[in-house]
Amino acid sequence: MYSYEEEQKRLTKLWQEVLSDEDEHYSSQDEESLFGDVYLSDEYQCESSVDSESSSKRTSSKLRKRRHKKHPPKNGEKHQKHPITGNEPSTSATGAKTSSNVSTEAQHVADVIETVIANMTQDSDSDSDETLLPSTTDAATQNANITWGPVTGNNLRQIMFSEANTVGFDPQIHENFHDKTPCEFYSLFVNDDILELMVTNCMLQFFLVTLLLFFEKVVETNRYAAQCLAKNQLRRARITSWHDTTVPEMKKFLGIVLWMGLCQFPTLQAYWSKSPIYKNFITGVMSRNRFQLLSKMLHFSDNSEVTEDRLQKLTPLVLKLKEVFQRIYVPGEYVCIDETLVPFQGRLKFKQYIANKRHKFGIKVFKLCLEGGYTYDFKIYCGKEQTDGGGVPTNVVLNLMKDLLHKGRTLCTDNYYTSVTLAHELLRRETHLIGTLRTNRKFNPKNVITKKLKLGETIAEESNSGIVVQKWKDKRDVLTLSTKYTDEMVTVQRRRGEVCKPKNVIEYNKFKAFIDIADQKKSYNSSLRKTLKWYKKLAIELLTGTAFINAYIAYRDIANEPMSITKFRESVIFGLLQLEEHEQTVTTNDHKLVNLGRKLRRRCVACYSQHSQEMGRKEALKKTPQSMLKCEACDKHYCLECFF
């Protein structure tokens, strides 16, 4: 692909050739306009290589002669105005153009070509960081004057982290929540304010019917449900049985959604099935019809207010969650930015495709994560935005980092975001950058990019602005950028022995894992189900995924009690459903032993439990006797001595 300067030179040269041919042509003929479609359509083409001057003249002359013979102007027929200049072509009746007019219009067309190419170049790659932010003239000057040389470390800036004493959760949260339950930690993030938002915008107070249905008085507590009721034309529709919902009922709704992630059935109706295969306690908590109505009416904004915001249906929820995430936690020195994908295959204008993700189609969410996988901020990608000039990666980073700049932090990004331009922008804001780098980024050192390395070799260069770009050969070339470390090599221990790795690579792997940990924890027992409404799926992801993981991290840090994420989920479910954790909700039959025969013998569970505590599992497997007797109620094997 041609660069901007090469394309401009090529088109200008071709246009000058056209004008030189036209001067010769007008001296003998007067059949066609100077700016007619004949000349533009044949010469204004992108070719694989620039032809020689004689070849271009010869080709354009042949095409013009062929076109003139084939389509001569008819008598009395006027030439159309040119689409660029708006001028009518001159004919023999009006006289030939002078050389001054030709040069004036040539300059005008050259300006038009330059403008078109500039716009085309800007729009062709909006996601890359090839363009600079126009407001940051200092960074633009740095990019233009950048020079590369050997790595000395003299140009690296020493930026001190200024919030080292306040990192972590708010001390007030530590004081008030050190003895709270997991459900109360989850309520800290999904608080009553958010539940009231769901109740107000999802539910309605059922209208009263008076005077034999001729006059209706509607008391509105949920706009969306009221709109659905107003449109309803069926007398026996399920929505006509609606009644007011409350915050406790919405907590039960969230508890059931979380429980469905633990116990996944093939269909939603199977959870309320009377078949013994799907037997569970959920029918005593909420009926199927009520759960489906709540799912249908789930809403977070007013549909009557139409704006240009594509996230209008989720904006109130997103703002409240961000406020909670950022209010109770102060980020440390190292932060990480990366994107994640919420799976969705329905119709959506800003649906994305990422080939290297497990779910390739979905809604892209940019996240800023901290140590342990805590999500501090996030941004939902809604398609190309009107920006001041910077690419999408740079704008995303500056948007997510806006409250964390000028404090000496270090940002870790992958090669989608990292660039020399972004490094200069962050250095101007007292922030370091560490990340992998793409070879085709602008202002990269050519000596490092083109160098061929053998296994274990490395090469690096340092810029006069304090940026180190290093290439290291592992199984493949690894290109990194850092404003904090030099090209120092560190010895690390592997299974097969010691290996020397660049410190930049070690630090990148360490801090880039923040968002990987968050995605890993979120993937356990996911509550997402298929739906046609994108905002409902994204809302469930935020409430039962992102907010839930933050609550789990807060519980482990503040309560200082080790607990697996599955146990934490179970405890939250018990709290939301208002059940006792040791409550027996399913009645069982009377305990009695059944003889199954020698072929179905199993070890006695009571004997095995006793032996394993005394002598360990291996010895217990040898010492525990096998029994043919099985308890129907417990569904376990016992020997006669242990059962009675």
Please, could you describe this protein's structure?
The longest helix is centred in the first third of the chain and has 26 residues, at 99-124. Mean pLDDT is 77; it is low at 22-100, 116-135, 203-221 and 582-589. It is built from 21 helices and 21 strands. Helix 1 (4-28) packs antiparallel against helix 4 (99-124) and helix 16 (503-523) crosses helix 17 (534-558). Helix content is 41%, strand content 14%. It folds into 4 domains: 4-124, no CATH class; 172-329 and 525-583, no CATH class; 330-523, no CATH class; 593-643, no CATH class. With 644 residues, it is of the alpha+beta class. The radius of gyration is 35 Å and the shape is globular.
Task: From the structure above, extract its key features.
ten-stranded mixed sheet, globular, alpha+beta, 644 residues, three-stranded antiparallel sheet, 21 strands, 21 helices
Sequence-ordered SSE layout with sheet pairings:
Elements: H1 4-28, H2 37-43, H3 53-70, H4 99-124, H5 137-144, E1 148-149, E2 168-169, H6 171-177, H7 182-189, H8 192-202, E3 208-210, E4 215-217, H9 223-231, H10 247-262, H11 288-297, H12 315-327, E5 329-330, E6 334-343, E7 352-353, E8 361-369, E9 375-380, H13 392-400, E10 410-413, H14 420-428, E11 432-436, H15 446-450, E12 458-463, E13 468-473, E14 477-482, E15 489-494, E16 497-502, H16 503-523, H17 534-558, H18 565-577, E17 593-595, E18 602-603, H19 605-615, H20 617-623, E19 626-627, E20 629-631, E21 636-637, H21 640-643
Parallel strand pairs: 6-10, 10-11
Antiparallel strand pairs: 1-12, 2-5, 3-4, 6-8, 7-8, 8-9, 11-14, 12-13, 13-14, 15-16, 17-20, 18-19, 20-21
Helix pairs in contact: 1-3, 1-4, 2-3, 5-14, 7-17, 7-18, 10-18, 12-17, 16-17, 19-20
